[in-house]
Amino acid sequence: MSGRPHPDRLPLGALLGRRRGWLIAGLGLILLSLFAGVVLLALSGWFITASALAGLGLIAMIDIFAPGAGIRLAAITRTVARYGERLVTHEATFRLLADLRLALFERLLRLDEAQLRGLRRGDTLNRLTADVDTLDHLFLGVIGPGVSAFLLTILAGLLAALWVDPGVALGLTLLLLAGNPLVAETARRRGLAASRGVVAALPALRREAGEGLEGLQELVAFDLGAAQRARVETRSAALVGLQERLQRLDAVSQAGVTLAGLAATWLALLLGIGLLGDGAISGPVLGLLVLGMLALGEAWQPLPGAWRRLEQCRGAAARLGETWHQGPQLPVATAPLPACGQGLELEAVDFRYRPDLPKVLDGFSLRIEPRERIALVGPSGAGKSTLAMLLMRQLDPQSGAVRLDGVDLRELDPDSLRRHVGLLAQRPVLFRDTLAENLRLARPEAGEGELRHALEVAGLGQFVAGLANGLETWIDEAGTNLSGGEARRVALARLVLTDCPVVILDEPTTGLDEGTARGLARTLDRWLEGRTAVMITHDPELLPRYDRLIRLD
């Protein structure tokens, strides 16, 4: 059997290894806390039994100071260790989750435009939030409690072998090490289908609810609210049913672990009485053995739930592994850009989005001279936006070639190309931040004067001057506190800051009234001097000056 990792599996071992110092420290504190609890109860058993026997006159004299000091030390140690364990294990978990989210986001950034469009927003968000959060149980709820209970039982067995009897210690240790994992494994197997169902049902419910909120206006307009509500209720009821089933299974498995602990305690009492009768141990040692075994059984209480949650962690890791191992579909090249880099050419380009769909472009050829401006017009679906993505190399043609100054785009470094060819997309993205920071996405070092100049070019000079906070005005998520035309012009100002020699403007005047559109066209006309421009529109009369008009059918 190969030791290599599965190609679609999340590399959890490597991620855990990054924080192994925190994890080892947390595991040590969990073990110390549990050990102090066992010592506390065991010494209490010795002290109570010795005091009772002394009161009956069966023991002439007992030392109350040593066991009393041990009890106080164990109590203080357990309190401090529990506090430290909470701090360390949670810090380790938060660091692991941050590492995982950053690594996943980095991998998403490497994907091509077509791949990113294929990611369902609700599903991708769920993987970055809920699935990652599920993995916080991996250490806090699975590894930590399970490993600590196992090590504590081994340690207690060794101490019992030294101070009580090797045979008794071996029997009790084997009972705990066999009985508790058996109960936990039985619970895991019985809850396997429900655990996997929760992993699948929770993202589906969130996606259904999220898509309903996004399309709320359409649902109300077409009177489909009741149907959407019924779908959400159905998914919610299914999820609640699975969770209730797992809760009942947890209760039964907890009872099983409790019975295993009580069986070990009863066996310790039975074997201890035999040792006491043989004079091998004293009465106080019997009390120590019995209460110590009772405390040791309590250390196994979290195991069934932890073992059962392991399946949810596995399911979440499998979903994250699908994202983790996604790579860009477009071949990556490293050739530098041409010196001038302003002439564009499409030669006999064929493109379709799927084999079962018709071609969007069929043998399409076009040459754009350096510093030439062309206007592309045509009905929706004619391939205008597809052409823009081909020129940006967000897509590759199935046949033919797209070139920059005679060099095939597939041979050029993609990062350099995207800094060289700027795009104003149909649906620009604005982030929940200030206006200035939204603009500085294009050029982080840009000063206030450069930002204001870019806004003037985009026709937003007077708009910003009328804002109470100016460039520090807060923009809501997706620009919801701006009109559609204002949001597009903010994105246009961001494009202006890139100062690209080649620009593609996809519907630059959409959402503007005729007067505003004509004013924007005049400012853009000056900014486009010396640049190669491809302008996509349904109304060429509202565009800046162009050299050629090309109609796509």
Explain what you see.
- The chain is elongated, with a radius of gyration of 34 Å.
- The protein contains 19 helices and 11 strands.
- It is 62% helix and 9% strand.
- It is α/β, with parallel strands linked by helices.
- Strand 4 and strand 5 form a beta hairpin.
- It has 2 domains: 258 residues, ABC transporter type 1, transmembrane domain (ABC transporter transmembrane region fold, Up-down Bundle); 208 residues, Rossmann fold (3-Layer(aba) Sandwich), CATH 3.40.50.300.
- Helix 2 packs across helix 6 and helix 10 packs across helix 12.
- It has a 5-stranded parallel beta sheet, sandwiched between helices. A 4-stranded antiparallel beta sheet has the order 2-1-4-5, with helices on one face.
Topology, please?
Layout: H1 12-18, H2 20-55, H3 65-109, H4 113-118, H5 121-134, H6 137-163, H7 166-190, H8 192-214, H9 216-221, H10 225-277, H11 283-298, H12 303-324, E1 344-351, E2 361-368, E3 373-377, H13 384-391, E4 399-404, E5 407-408, H14 414-420, E6 421-424, E7 433-434, H15 435-439, H16 448-457, H17 461-465, E8 474-475, H18 484-498, E9 502-506, H19 514-527, E10 532-536, E11 548-551
Parallel strand pairs: 3-10, 3-11, 6-9, 9-10
Antiparallel strand pairs: 1-2, 1-4, 4-5, 7-8
The name of the CATH architecture of the largest domain is Up-down Bundle
The domain count comes to: 2
Q: What proportion of the residues form beta strands (DSSP E)? A: 5-15%
Briefly note the structural class of the backbone.
alpha/beta
Share of helix among residues? Answer: 55-70%
CATH superfamily of the largest domain: ABC transporter type 1, transmembrane domain
- Describe the sheet with the most strands: 5 strands, parallel
Question: What is the strand arrangement across the widest sheet?
Answer: 6-9-10-3-11
Please tell me what the overall shape is.
elongated
What string, H for helix and E for strand, traces the elements in order? HHHHHHHHHHHHEEEHEEHEEHHHEHEHEE
> What Rg is obtained from the alpha carbons, in whole angstroms?
34 Å
State the separation between the terminal residues, measured CA to CA. Answer: 58 Å
Which parts are unreliable, with pLDDT below 50 for 5 consecutive residues or more?
1-7
Please name the CATH topology of the largest domain: ABC transporter transmembrane region fold
| Total beta strands | 11
CATH structural class of the largest domain: Mainly Alpha
